[in-house]
Design goal:
Elements: H1 3-14, H2 17-25, E1 31-33, H3 34-43, H4 54-71, E2 75-78, E3 83-86, H5 88-106
Antiparallel strand pairs: 1-3, 2-3
Length: about 110
Amino acid sequence: MSSTKEADRIYRALADGVRRQTLRELPEGETVSISTHVEAIAAGGFSTGDGPTHETVQLSLYHTHLPLLCDAGLVEFDEDQKVVTMTTLGKTVHSEILQPSQELLENDDFEPVQ
């Protein structure tokens, strides 16, 4: 696989706030149950228009977000055990892209280019 295709998959996975939140919520080196992760995502403000419900969050994770994160190599999802784990690549993307971006946005001196 070319590095361009890999980069495209990663950036596609990061293009959605729920998927970025998923990477932020997963503890490094730990396997998390989907039910625990659904709670964290719902508490973090996931929106479907009418407000988050556990069912809408879980369906969205199962059918959209986790498959894209898995395809990008950022998480591993065990459907039988119903657990998700961040991969080494996911940890790198979190520490090298997501965390610095979040810190920049939280900086009081940051002014977006218009």
